[in-house]
Design brief:
Strand content of chain B: over 45%
Helix content of chain A: under 10%
Largest sheet of chain A: 7 strands, mixed
Radius of gyration of chain B: 13 Å
Number of helices of chain B: 0
Order of helices and strands of chain A: EEEEEEEEEEE
Helix content of chain B: under 10%
Radius of gyration of chain A: 13 Å
Strand content of chain A: over 45%
Shape of chain A: globular
Distance between the termini of chain A: 37 Å
Oligomer: heterodimer
Number of strands of chain B: 11
Number of helices of chain A: 0
Shape of chain B: globular
Order of helices and strands of chain B: EEEEEEEEEEE
Structural class of chain A: mainly beta
Structural class of chain B: mainly beta
């Protein structure tokens, strides 16, 4: 099973900051890595597909990068509405999710 | 507009069975891979099972293999999850998710989920 490890588990940030969340895979997964946002009591929402491909309707302040085993989700100029949990997901071999990163806006 | 509506959740005792359904609309259902993903209370996301568009190829997480069966009725645009020998650790919100046409694609649309509680 491919294990995804996210860091940090929790981060408290102020509006307009830039946030970086990392996801490390236990083996090479190419670019079969996707990012989701989940707000409290809502279902997950796809933010980035295949490591760096943007999704229609998702604000441009969300971007992704990486390949192989190391991936990054960057949120530029953070807004209050970005308070949520963020998950990475690999689809290279079956599917697994990272443990999640909870983002708190001060 | 893509819509996914899960149903069938509830409270039941360990060892019992339950079948979840996910009614899909707004896309050509038979063209797309579908999945079940669960989330235990206060925890992260856990992939449970996926199925190919024609229903011929199911995939399962080790934690449910041999107990859960995924299926689909493309004539009724509905995805199912038959859950047998339920355990307390199966307690979670169960989401159905639509993927792309291949199993390696991400879940681009998700339902609102249905809660399954396994407790004596």
């Amino acid at each position: 099973e491919i294990v995804l490890t996210q860091s940090p588990d929790f981060q408290s940030v102020t509006p307009k900051e830039t946030v970086t969340i990392t996801c490390r895979a236990s083996q090479n997964i190419g670019t079969s890595l996707h990012w989701y946002q989940q707000k409290p009591d809502q279902s997950p929402k796809l933010l980035i597909r295949y490591a760096s491909q943007s999704i229609s309707g998702v604000p441009s302040r969300f971007s992704g990068s990486g390949s192989g085993t190391d991936f990054t989700l960057t949120i530029n100029s953070l807004e209050a509405e970005d308070a949520a949990a963020y998950y990475c997901h690999q689809s290279y071999i079956l599917h697994t999710f990272g443990q999640g990163t909870k983002l708190e806006i001060k | 507009e893509v819509q996914l509506l899960e149903s069938g959740g509830g409270l039941l005792q360990p060892g019992r069975s339950l079948r979840l359904s996910c009614a899909a609309s707004g896309f050509i259902f038979s063209n797309y891979v579908m999945s079940w993903v669960r989330q235990a209370p206060g925890k992260g996301l856990e992939w449970v099972s996926s199925i190919s568009g024609n229903g011929d190829t199911p995939y399962y997480a080790d934690s449910v293999k041999g107990r859960f069966t995924v299926s689909r009725d493309n004539s009724k645009n509905t995805l199912f999850l038959q859950m047998n020998s339920l355990r307390a650790e199966d307690t979670a919100v169960y989401y159905c998710a639509k993927h792309g046409m291949v199993v390696v694609s991400p879940g681009d649309y998700w339902g609102q989920g249905t809660l399954v509680t396994v407790s004596s």
